[in-house]
Amino acid sequence: MTSTDESAEATQAASDRIAAEVRDDMLSGHLLPGAPLRDTALASSYGVSRNTVREAFRLLQSQGLTEHRRHKGTVVRRVSGDDVRDIYTVRRALELRAIEQINQASAEHLVAIERAVCAAEAARDAERWNDVGTASLRFHLALVGSLSSPTLDACIDSVLSRLRLAFAPMPDEGQFQAPWIERDRHINDLLQSGFATDARAALRVYLDDSENVVLGAVRRHIAT
C-alpha cells in the first residue's frame, strides 16, 4: 500500500467517524431539524481538514440526514411524510427479520436488548423524556444488532437517526414516548421467554401504530 493510499484511508476513516458522531447526536435528540453544521468548527474539534468534514457531510446527505441550503450551508434536514413511509418500510424489513432469527442471537445481544428497555424505563421514571426516546431507539437498534451484520447495523443507525428527527414536531414528548415503553417491554419479554412468533406479531402492530402517529405529527407540522 502506498502512502497516498494510506492517507486516503485515514481521511475516509476520519470522515466516517465524524458522520457517525453526528448521527449519534441526532439519535440522542441533541441535533434538531434546521440546526446548522459548521465545517470550520467540526474541523477544529476533530483536528482534521475542512475537506474531511465536508466528506462527512456528503455521507450524511446521502443518508437523508442533512441538506445544503444556499447562504446557510449544511443543516440538519427536516423529515417529510415520504421520509416517514420510507423509514418504516426499512424498519419492517430489518426488525421483523431480526425477530425471525432471534434464536440465532448470542446471549450478549439478548442482554443488550434487555438493557435498552431497562434504560428507557429508568429514564421514564425520572421523567427524562429525551433520554426515553433515545433508549427506545437503542432497543430497536439492538434488535437489528442481533443479526450480527455491520452493514445492517449501519443501515438501521441511519434510518433511526432520521426517525429521531421526525420526533421534533411532537408537542409533548412525554405524552408521545410513554406508551411505547410498555410495548418495548412486552416485545422484549416475549423474546427473552422464547416466544418469537408472538413478539414478531406484537412488533408488526407496534410499527404500524408508530408509523401512523409519527406520520400524523409530521403532516400536521408541515401544514402549519
SSE blueprint:
Blueprint: H1 3-27, E1 36-37, H2 39-46, H3 50-62, E2 66-69, E3 73-76, H4 81-100, H5 107-125, H6 129-145, H7 150-166, H8 173-192, H9 196-223
Antiparallel strand pairs: 1-3, 2-3
Helix pairs in contact: 1-3, 1-7, 2-3, 4-6, 4-7, 4-9, 5-6, 5-8, 6-7, 6-8, 8-9
Q: What does this molecule look like?
A:
Residues 12-79 form the HTH gntR-type domain. This is GntR family transcriptional regulator. The protein is mainly α. The protein folds into 2 domains: 3-22 and 32-76, Winged helix-like DNA-binding domain superfamily/Winged helix DNA-binding domain (Arc Repressor Mutant, subunit A, Orthogonal Bundle), CATH 1.10.10; 81-223, Four Helix Bundle (Hemerythrin (Met), subunit A) (Up-down Bundle), CATH 1.20.120. It contains 9 helices and 3 strands, in the order H-E-H-H-E-E-H-H-H-H-H-H. It has helices at 3-27, 39-46, 50-62, 81-100, 107-125, 129-145, 150-166, 173-192, 196-223; strands at 36-37, 66-69, 73-76. Strands 1-3-2 form a 3-stranded antiparallel beta sheet. A hairpin with a 3-residue loop joins strand 2 (66-69) and strand 3 (73-76). Helix 4 packs across helix 6. It starts with a helix and ends with a helix.
